[in-house]
Write a structure and sequence with these properties.
The complex is a heterodimer. By secondary structure, chain A is an all-beta fold. Chain A contains no helices and 11 strands. In chain A, strands 2, 4, 5, 6, 9, 10 and 11 form a 7-stranded mixed beta sheet that branches. A 4-stranded antiparallel beta sheet of chain A has the order 1-3-8-7, with no helix packed on it. In chain B, strands 2, 5, 6, 10, 11 and 12 form a 6-stranded mixed beta sheet that branches. In chain B, strands 3-9-8-7 form a 4-stranded antiparallel beta sheet, with no helix packed on it. The chains are: A mainly beta, B mainly beta.
């Protein structure tokens, strides 16, 4: 199957700093990428959907200015958590979809904000 | 709205035991239903899916039947192996590409 990577796998940062998470489709072109957030013992919650070259569409309740998403190419999307606070600590997962409707998921990034 | 409720884990079984992980859903319209599996250190992988009522999805010995009358999509396997140890997520999709996930069920199979 298609492979999606995420970097870094874990990141610890101080409160108030910004953190960038990369999501790459390694062997296919992801025309659409999705960013999810998962709290312990809870579902994956969709944060935003982005199409290459377009602005991301954010789900209700997700702050656009806090979670900046860039999908500049068909193989790379980035999520930047700006001015991170402890409540932003979570597991962030991306997925990509090509011409079909199957989503291929990355392994996730664990963010801890001190 | 759309939501998925699945059996809380963790589930621990002996090798060759029968597995059932329950999943029920609430959806507007006619959803497609999915089971995803996440092995340690890896991303979610699609295990099986069903797109309409009474469809049965199957893969790697796992099966799930789309039951519209009970709004369920329970995952079953007749004989689990140690290599099946993973977290299993039930999910639905309506119309657009958005997936709605359950909370995941961790399965541990012991030799």
């Amino acid at each position: 199957g298609a492979v999606v990577s995420q970097h870094p796998s874990r990141v610890i940062c101080k409160s108030g700093t910004s953190v960038k998470i990369e999501c790459r489709s390694l062997d296919f072109q992801a025309t659409t990428m999705f960013w999810y957030r998962q709290f312990p013992k809870q579902s994956l919650m969709l944060m935003a959907t982005s199409n290459e070259g377009s602005k991301a569409t954010y789900e209700q309740g997700v702050e656009k200015d806090k979670f900046l998403i860039n999908h500049a190419s068909l193989t790379l999307s980035t999520l930047t958590v700006t001015s991170a606070h402890p409540e932003d600590s979570s597991f962030y997962i991306c997925s990509g979809a090509g011409s079909g409707d199957t989503q291929y998921f990355g392994p996730g990034t664990r963010l801890t904000v001190l | 709205g759309n939501s998925v409720t699945q059996m809380e884990g963790p589930v621990t079984l002996s090798e060759e035991a029968f597995l059932t992980i329950n999943c029920t859903y609430t959806a507007t319209g006619y959803p497609s239903l999915f089971w995803y599996v996440q092995y340690p250190g890896e991303g979610l992988q699609l295990l099986l899916k069903a797109t309409k009522a009474d469809d049965k999805g199957s893969n790697k010995g796992f099966e799930a039947t789309y039951r519209k009358e009970t709004t369920s999509f329970h995952l079953e396997k007749g004989s689990v192996q140690v290599s099946d140890s993973a977290v299993y997520f039930c999910a639905l999709r309506t119309g657009a590409n958005n997936l709605f996930f359950g909370t995941g069920t961790r399965l541990t199979v012991i030799p």
